[in-house]
Design a protein that fits this description.
28% helix; single chain; 3 domains
């Protein structure tokens, strides 16, 4: 959508017919327009083109995507009104991400149906439809999101992944695109703000036990739980706590990087793993052992080689924090053993296992009432247990 100037006149919604000379016309998408100044549009290329007066209101409208208020119904209505007229797919996509961020959604989905695309948000663990758009609009939005994520917008037959930076937010959006029988599907994971250990909502006992383990000069601290249980959030909080209290070099190995810690003032270097390019967790762990690291974090231990290297790092003078999928704290230690960890080395090295999962609770105003708010005030909090070598949670 934009200034379709090469193939004849088009509607204001689709663009405007512009002539850059007596005989030369060109097509300029709305996405390539930076600003409307007077009667001219400033382009990303640095050029400026005259815009016919009747179409200047449409150009102004295309450049003015709505800002979110945090009220989902109001924001979705404003966003749908925007894309119903002259609109920029890139600006609309950014506005949709801003809407989801303001709504504290963890995920945003665009799903192709037979006659329309469904837009759904996951809030407090539940995925709900908030809007539908026609198939052509859905395809344009997904193409724009792929462009923002550094993927190939013109390829609709591949599984693609990328990240999208958000203005004013240290956490990137992880974007995944997949072809389906009815069209492409987009799933975007929106990581929230960084939390401190105090903000996690851990019980007093669990928090105290974890902080005691983090004060150890070396050893292994495992953060275990199910997928989506908040392990990465806790690992980041622990890294922030450590960076503020002890010097040395801190390094985190992640797939992908979910929060850019340096941008948040946290002195931790982050490595984003790229298995397709040979930068696997195993390769990165070997490299980390040669980097004079004092605190090492591993987003998730998945293989026997990763478990062995993490344990080696912890056993040779480093404090290692690592995520692990497990159903309980004792199962996390058993999982390490199943991955081939030497039982004697593991027994001498581990300092604590924090097992956590997220549960949904009602807001305090509604708790125990016969007429609850229906979910408006729901929030997710961690249910956590810390196991220490002494055996006391």
């Amino acid at each position: 959508m934009g200034f379709d100037v090469g193939g004849g006149a088009v509607s204001p919604r689709e663009g405007a017919e512009l002539a850059t000379g007596w005989f030369r016309r060109e097509s300029v998408p709305w996405d390539d327009v930076l600003a409307l100044v007077g009667g001219r549009v400033e382009l990303t290329s640095g050029r400026s083109l005259a815009l016919p007066p009747p179409l200047r209101p449409e150009a102004a409208r295309a450049l003015a995507a709505p800002s979110p208020s945090g009220a989902v119904a109001t924001d979705v209505s404003a966003w749908l009104t925007y894309i119903a007229g002259a609109w920029s797919p890139v600006r609309a996509s950014r506005a949709l991400l801003a809407l989801a961020t303001a709504a504290a959604a963890s995920d945003l989905h665009l799903e192709a149906g037979e006659s329309a695309y469904a837009i759904r948000l996951r809030q407090t663990g539940e995925l709900a439809e908030v809007a539908t758009v026609d198939r052509a609009t859905g395809a344009r939005l997904i193409a724009a999101l792929k462009h923002l994520a550094g993927c190939m917008p013109y390829r609709c037959d591949l599984v693609q992944e990328g990240t999208i930076a958000r203005e004013g937010v240290a956490a990137d959006v992880r974007a995944s695109f997949m072809p389906t029988a009815l069209g492409e599907r987009a799933a975007l994971r929106l990581f929230g703000k960084l939390l401190s250990l105090d903000d996690l909502g851990l019980g007093a006992g669990a928090k105290s036990s974890l902080e005691t383990a983090l004060q150890a000069p070396s050893g292994l601290v495992l953060v275990a739980g199910p997928s989506g249980g908040g392990k990465t959030t806790t690992l980041y909080a622990a890294l922030a706590w450590l960076a503020a209290r002890r010097g040395g070099a801190h390094l985190s190995l992640e797939d992908p990087v979910e929060q850019r810690l340096r941008l948040a003032g946290i002195a931790v270097d982050q490595v984003e793993l790229r298995p397709e390019r040979g930068l696997t967790a195993e390769v990165a762990l070997v490299g980390a052992l040669r980097q004079d690291i004092d605190v090492l974090a591993v987003g998730e231990i998945r293989t026997a080689a990763e478990a062995a290297l993490a344990l080696q790092a912890a056993h040779t003078g480093r404090l290692v924090l690592a995520g692990l999928h497990a159903g309980s704290a004792p199962e996390a230690l058993q999982r390490m053993a199943d991955l081939g960890a030497d039982p004697r080395v593991l027994a001498a090295t581990w300092r604590a296992v924090l097992f956590q999962r997220l549960i949904t609770v009602s807001c305090r105003e509604c708790a125990g009432l016969s007429c609850p708010c229906g979910g408006v005030g729901r929030r997710r909090v961690p249910e956590a247990v810390v196991l220490t070598p002494a055996g006391a949670p």
